[in-house]
């Protein structure tokens, strides 16, 4: 049977998804299910002085109304509310905890009723009175008061810490023959996953909870609920077998799960809480980012100095940040670099990870600045990148495990036809439209995390692979089945995958593009243990053809344990188990990241974009995008290709559409819906070509790096650069809307 790794295997859960058999958090119907509707604050900052729930309670079918002054007990210390992805500095938000209002749209009550319609109607009748305090939601008003982030202590943040400066950047910048300095702006953006956040909570007679939750990390939610409600892990089971999009919004437990558990425990009934689309805007978001980048180059087109300053947005109660500026000093060869990052604390919910957090925003600015530097140097933008190319990690001056970015540039440029670009802005046309070609580089982490995988192989040749990771829609079920099938020598349909259940072997949240590398190597480790046990049994057989074989001399293939030296020496799985007197072999192994401190690991991408701009109207259309990605070994060209397509579409949104708009007078998000928060639709997306560049890597046994985020990094810059090339107008403020083009 052919190997599955590296092929375009269709999703093993595809049929379940398209037929509706796959259940999401709000799809679990149980007898007696009650429905919660969330009441949200209508001020941005202050205190609740009174909540009147009389009218809501009077509605027939209403079971209870929970508020901060009428709710079951919850933990009173910050530690209890810190989930694995919580910022290390600050106090996590506590839903319905007290009378304090910290952002507009904050949950202040939960109406629980016999039907969702009754709950929603009654929720509209809850009246709150407030003592208002002055709020600030405008990053531009707070930029001068922004503060440097305190050092992070949370291991989740450690991988993202800002690097140390190097060289003498100020002096090098002053001495540079050619300089470019610019300020770039990224607005607040929201994830807008298709599936609404929802939790269905079932409480049994002993107080044990079964929680169907929308999350990227079932064990993270389990731990969080245990902390808040003083429960033991065996009392809480969290399940999330399918997720309709997370993009980072589900790394942290969201407030609906707390509200649903509060209600289920209060009523001793199953309760479901589903957020509305509008309420989804009260969750985390990509922080707005104000960035200043200065680049100093010599006339030969190599970099002498990079300085990158950024201000990002967080809440008043938690300091969320990532490696906001360090990407600039990492990507290109440059001896002098420094970074400064400050946080503006606003009266909003805490900002959050959103697909390639920090890199999407920071590299937009860096790659726009590089394009401007290319103009100043009168160099082709791609040629500038090649002259600044670095074969070593610039932070640690380390060689890369692998870095096929040069191939990304070459293959991407070839497929795009970059050599036919005429350099001058406004020099390419198609009828009445201006044509622009732009490009940019992308970079992201290649991370691996500790993970535990259990495999149970039965004598009939079926394997069950289990791990508590999520599949946030990326295709984790499928790659797990592929890897297990290859490692165990079984057909794909003889492997079943269990995930998204806190009772399964441990896994961190699915995020950071780290699960593919982690779980595939985890499966390899556990499959090797299964193989070893099979070999032990096979060697005990009378006249065993594998009597003298060592574990690394045999492999599993076609349902047999086969000598790698001599294929005729083989024992079938069924025979080995029969002789051993067992009908199943089960192993559970933890795999640690293959840390090699002498080498750096990143993924890279090159994006080439063509835009057409209607000069009269300013309408921008992204006609063609070529995305060439180097991300180690690709486990599945189909699901990986889809990750790249999705990333490019989102990059179009970032460049041209997406922007969360706040009325700062009332501190409220005004486009909290997907009619007025614009995302690309079919008409905005034209031709996208994905190139998965070959990148052999041995940093982990399977050579996998992860591809969920990398392709989004650089897309917005490539499009912004194409818009400049088309029009001669440089807009440094995303999204590039037609009014900015006409300014
Ligand atoms: Mo990703 S933003 O780490 O889910």
Short descriptors:
five-stranded mixed sheet; single chain; 19 helices; alpha+beta; binds dioxothiomolybdenum(VI) ion; 26% helix; 743 residues
What hetero molecules are bound to the protein chains? dioxothiomolybdenum(VI) ion
Strand order of the largest sheet: 3-5-1-11-8-9-10
Uncertain runs: none
Specify the overall morphology.
globular
* Straight-line distance between termini: 62 Å
Number of helices: 19
The total beta strand count reads: 30
Write structural notes for this entry.
- The model has no long low-confidence stretch (mean pLDDT 96).
- Helix content is 26%, strand content 25%.
- It is built from 19 helices and 30 strands.
- With 743 residues, the chain is of the alpha+beta class.
- A seven-stranded mixed beta sheet has the order 3-5-1-11-8-9-10. A five-stranded mixed beta sheet has the order 17-18-26-27-30, with helices on both faces.
- The site of dioxothiomolybdenum(VI) ion has 11 residues, from loops.
- Dioxothiomolybdenum(VI) ion binds next to loops.
Would you spell out the secondary-structure blueprint of this structure?
Elements: H1 14-19, E1 34-40, E2 46-52, H2 54-57, E3 62-67, H3 78-81, E4 100-101, E5 107-113, H4 116-123, E6 127-132, H5 139-142, H6 155-158, H7 169-175, E7 178-186, E8 198-203, E9 209-213, H8 218-229, E10 236-239, H9 255-267, E11 271-274, E12 289-297, E13 303-314, H10 326-331, E14 336-345, H11 359-377, H12 381-387, E15 392-393, E16 398-399, H13 405-416, E17 429-430, E18 433-445, E19 451-458, E20 462-466, H14 476-488, E21 495-498, H15 515-539, E22 554-557, E23 560-563, E24 570-572, H16 573-580, E25 584-591, E26 602-614, E27 620-630, H17 637-656, E28 662-663, E29 668-669, E30 687-692, H18 715-727, H19 738-742
Parallel strand pairs: 1-11, 9-10, 13-14, 20-21, 27-30
Antiparallel strand pairs: 1-5, 2-4, 2-6, 3-5, 7-12, 8-9, 8-11, 12-13, 15-16, 17-18, 18-26, 19-20, 19-25, 22-23, 23-24, 26-27, 28-29
Helix pairs in contact: 11-18, 14-15, 15-16, 17-18
The protein binds dioxothiomolybdenum(VI) ion.
The site of dioxothiomolybdenum(VI) ion has 11 residues, from loops.
């Amino acid at each position: 049977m052919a190997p599955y790794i590296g092929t375009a295997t269709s999703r093993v859960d595809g049929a379940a998804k398209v037929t509706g058999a796959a259940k999401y958090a709000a799809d679990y119907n149980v007898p007696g299910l009650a429905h919660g509707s969330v009441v949200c604050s209508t001020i941005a900052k202050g205190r609740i002085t009174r909540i009147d729930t009389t009218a809501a309670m009077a509605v027939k079918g209403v079971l209870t109304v929970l508020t901060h002054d009428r709710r079951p007990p919850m933990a009173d210390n910050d530690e209890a509310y810190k989930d694995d992805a919580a910022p290390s500095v600050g106090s996590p938000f506590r839903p319905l905890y007290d009378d304090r209002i910290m952002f507009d749209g904050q949950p202040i009550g939960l109406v629980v009723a016999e039907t969702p319609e009754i709950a929603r109607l009654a929720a509209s009748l809850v009246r709150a009175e407030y003592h208002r305090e002055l709020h600030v939601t405008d990053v531009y008003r707070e930029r001068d008061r922004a503060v440097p982030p305190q050092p992070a202590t949370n291991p989740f943040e450690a991988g993202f810490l800002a690097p140390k400066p190097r060289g003498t950047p100020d002096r090098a910048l002053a001495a540079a023959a050619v300089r470019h300095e610019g300020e770039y702006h990224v607005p607040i953006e929201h994830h807008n996953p298709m599936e609404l956040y929802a939790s269905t909570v079932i409480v049994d007679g002993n107080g044990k909870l079964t929680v169907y939750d929308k999350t990227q990390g079932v064990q993270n939610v389990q731990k969080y609920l245990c902390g808040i409600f003083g429960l033991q892990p065996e009392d809480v089971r969290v399940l999330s077998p399918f997720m309709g999009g997370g993009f980072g919004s589900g790394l942290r437990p969201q407030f609906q799960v707390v509200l649903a558990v509060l209600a289920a425990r209060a009523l001793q009934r199953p309760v479901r809480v589903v957020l509305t689309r509008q309420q989804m805007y009260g969750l985390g978001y990509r922080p707005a980012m104000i960035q200043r980048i200065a680049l100093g180059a010599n006339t030969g087109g190599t970099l002498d100095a990079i300085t990158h300053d950024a201000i990002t947005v967080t809440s008043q109660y938690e300091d969320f940040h990532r490696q906001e500026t360090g990407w600039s000093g990492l990507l290109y060869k440059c001896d002098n670099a420094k970074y400064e990052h400050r946080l503006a604390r606003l009266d909003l919910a805490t900002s959050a990870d959103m697909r390639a957090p920090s890199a999407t925003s920071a590299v937009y600015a860096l790659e726009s600045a590089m394009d401007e530097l290319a103009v100043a140097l009168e160099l082709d933008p791609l040629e500038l990148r090649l002259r600044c190319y670095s074969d070593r990690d610039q932070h640690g001056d380390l060689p890369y495990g692998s870095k096929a970015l040069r191939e990304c540039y070459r293959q991407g440029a070839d497929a795009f036809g970059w050599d036919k670009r005429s350099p001058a802005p406004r020099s390419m046309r198609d009828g009445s439209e201006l044509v622009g070609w732009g490009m940019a580089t992308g970079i992201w982490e290649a991370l691996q995390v500790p993970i535990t995988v259990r495999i149970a192989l039965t004598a009939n040749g079926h394997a069950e692979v289990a791990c508590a990771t999520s599949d946030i829609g990326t295709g984790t079920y499928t790659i797990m089945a592929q890897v297990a099938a290859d490692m165990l020598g079984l057909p794909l349909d003889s492997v079943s995958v269990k995930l998204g259940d806190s009772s399964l072997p441990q896994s961190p949240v699915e995020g950071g593009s780290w699960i593919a590398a982690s779980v595939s190597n985890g499966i390899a480790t556990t499959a090797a243990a299964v193989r070893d046990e099979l070999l032990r049994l096979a060697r005990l057989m009378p006249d065993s053809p594998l009597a003298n074989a060592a574990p690394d001399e045999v492999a599993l293939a076609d349902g047999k344990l086969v000598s790698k030296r001599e294929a005729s020496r083989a024992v079938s799985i069924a025979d080995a188990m029969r002789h051993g007197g067992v009908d199943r072999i089960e192993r559970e192994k933890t795999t640690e990241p293959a840390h090699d401190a002498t080498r750096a690991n990143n993924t890279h991408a090159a994006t080439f974009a063509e835009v057409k701009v209607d000069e009269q109207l300013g309408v921008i259309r992204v006609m063609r995008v070529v995305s060439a990605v180097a991300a180690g070994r690709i486990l599945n060209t189909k699901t990986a290709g889809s990750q790249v397509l999705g990333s490019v579409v989102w990059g179009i949104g970032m460049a041209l559409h997406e922007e969360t708009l706040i009325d700062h007078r009332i501190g409220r998000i005004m486009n909290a819906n997907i009619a007025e928060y614009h995302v690309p639709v079919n008409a905005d997306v034209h031709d996208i070509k994905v190139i998965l560049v070959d990148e052999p890597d041995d940093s982990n046994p399977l050579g996998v790096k992860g591809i969920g985020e990398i392709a989004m990094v650089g897309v917005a810059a490539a499009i912004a650069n194409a818009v400049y090339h088309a029009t001669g107008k440089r807009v440094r403020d995303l999204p590039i809307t037609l009014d900015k083009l006409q300014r």
